[in-house]
Amino acid sequence: MLKALEKAGILVEALPYIKKFSGKTVVIKYGGAAMVNDQLKEAVIMDVILMKLVGIHPVVVHGGGPEINGMLDRLGLKSHFIQGLRVTDESTMEVVEMVLAGKVNKEIVALIQRFGGKAVGLCGKDGGLIQAKKRFELVKNEGGARVPTDIGFVGDVVKIEPGLVRELADRGYIPVIAPIGVGEKGESYNINADTAAGELAQALKADKLVLLTDVEGILRDRKDPSSLISSLRIDDVPALVEEGVISGGMIPKVACCVEALQGGVGQTHIIDGRLPHSLLLEVFTDKGIGTMVLK
Amino acid sequence: MLKALEKAGILVEALPYIKKFSGKTVVIKYGGAAMVNDQLKEAVIMDVILMKLVGIHPVVVHGGGPEINGMLDRLGLKSHFIQGLRVTDESTMEVVEMVLAGKVNKEIVALIQRFGGKAVGLCGKDGGLIQAKKRFELVKNEGGARVPTDIGFVGDVVKIEPGLVRELADRGYIPVIAPIGVGEKGESYNINADTAAGELAQALKADKLVLLTDVEGILRDRKDPSSLISSLRIDDVPALVEEGVISGGMIPKVACCVEALQGGVGQTHIIDGRLPHSLLLEVFTDKGIGTMVLK
Amino acid sequence: MLKALEKAGILVEALPYIKKFSGKTVVIKYGGAAMVNDQLKEAVIMDVILMKLVGIHPVVVHGGGPEINGMLDRLGLKSHFIQGLRVTDESTMEVVEMVLAGKVNKEIVALIQRFGGKAVGLCGKDGGLIQAKKRFELVKNEGGARVPTDIGFVGDVVKIEPGLVRELADRGYIPVIAPIGVGEKGESYNINADTAAGELAQALKADKLVLLTDVEGILRDRKDPSSLISSLRIDDVPALVEEGVISGGMIPKVACCVEALQGGVGQTHIIDGRLPHSLLLEVFTDKGIGTMVLK
Amino acid sequence: MLKALEKAGILVEALPYIKKFSGKTVVIKYGGAAMVNDQLKEAVIMDVILMKLVGIHPVVVHGGGPEINGMLDRLGLKSHFIQGLRVTDESTMEVVEMVLAGKVNKEIVALIQRFGGKAVGLCGKDGGLIQAKKRFELVKNEGGARVPTDIGFVGDVVKIEPGLVRELADRGYIPVIAPIGVGEKGESYNINADTAAGELAQALKADKLVLLTDVEGILRDRKDPSSLISSLRIDDVPALVEEGVISGGMIPKVACCVEALQGGVGQTHIIDGRLPHSLLLEVFTDKGIGTMVLK
Amino acid sequence: MLKALEKAGILVEALPYIKKFSGKTVVIKYGGAAMVNDQLKEAVIMDVILMKLVGIHPVVVHGGGPEINGMLDRLGLKSHFIQGLRVTDESTMEVVEMVLAGKVNKEIVALIQRFGGKAVGLCGKDGGLIQAKKRFELVKNEGGARVPTDIGFVGDVVKIEPGLVRELADRGYIPVIAPIGVGEKGESYNINADTAAGELAQALKADKLVLLTDVEGILRDRKDPSSLISSLRIDDVPALVEEGVISGGMIPKVACCVEALQGGVGQTHIIDGRLPHSLLLEVFTDKGIGTMVLK
Amino acid sequence: MLKALEKAGILVEALPYIKKFSGKTVVIKYGGAAMVNDQLKEAVIMDVILMKLVGIHPVVVHGGGPEINGMLDRLGLKSHFIQGLRVTDESTMEVVEMVLAGKVNKEIVALIQRFGGKAVGLCGKDGGLIQAKKRFELVKNEGGARVPTDIGFVGDVVKIEPGLVRELADRGYIPVIAPIGVGEKGESYNINADTAAGELAQALKADKLVLLTDVEGILRDRKDPSSLISSLRIDDVPALVEEGVISGGMIPKVACCVEALQGGVGQTHIIDGRLPHSLLLEVFTDKGIGTMVLK
Question: Could you give one GO CC term from the UniProt record (chains A, B, C, D, E, F)?
Answer without folding.
Answer: cytoplasm
